[in-house]
Amino acid sequence: MTIAADNSRQGASHLYRTMRDVVQSMGDAVPGKFEITKEGIVHDMMSPGGPHEVTAAHLSRRLEKVMPDELLAHTGTPDVEDEPENILRHPDVIVIAWADLGVEGSADPRTVFAAIEIVSRSNPENDWVGKVRDYPLMGIPVYAVFDPRTGTGAVFTDIHPTPDGPRYATRKDFVYGEDVTIADWTISTEGLPLYG
User: Fold this and answer.
1) pTM score of the predicted model
2) CATH code for the part of the protein at 48-188
3) 174 close to 189: Cβ distance less than 8 angstroms
4) Residue 153's Cα: distance from chain center in Å?
5) What is the predicted pLDDT for the residue at 3?
């Protein structure tokens, strides 16, 4: 489900703050995950579980084995927020420095080395379309998508300007079982679970 946003700058900023208040007030009262995109509020009605959570845990652990100690492949809160762009996202995994994680509220997207999403069964276009659009707008240099529906994925890099705003210029597709490079680190995708 998406609730559309106002496009005028002042109206968009006011509407964004209102949408953020609504999303924060939902808390744990409503199942699923809420995010604010350039299109409005997106509600992924299914709470992640099973293969989704196992994939996030595997990716976090595999990345942390090859990254420097000052970085973390984090699977919890906080959200990543770019208030000037009116975007609030909650990646499944973010690669971020410990120092940049220890802030009150949302993380600054420009401190994130990479955002990783495990495609949701209930709303796959959010990961394959909306986040491919929003993450370069937020300045996140690498976006990796893992799709347990198909056992495939892609890594998006090289932000460049376009008439519609910043976009990723490079997409590298992969199949589960291959090694994949996310930012400066290469990990195996062997044994990642699929949706049943």
Assistant:
1) 0.83
2) 3.90.1570.10
3) yes
4) 14
5) 44
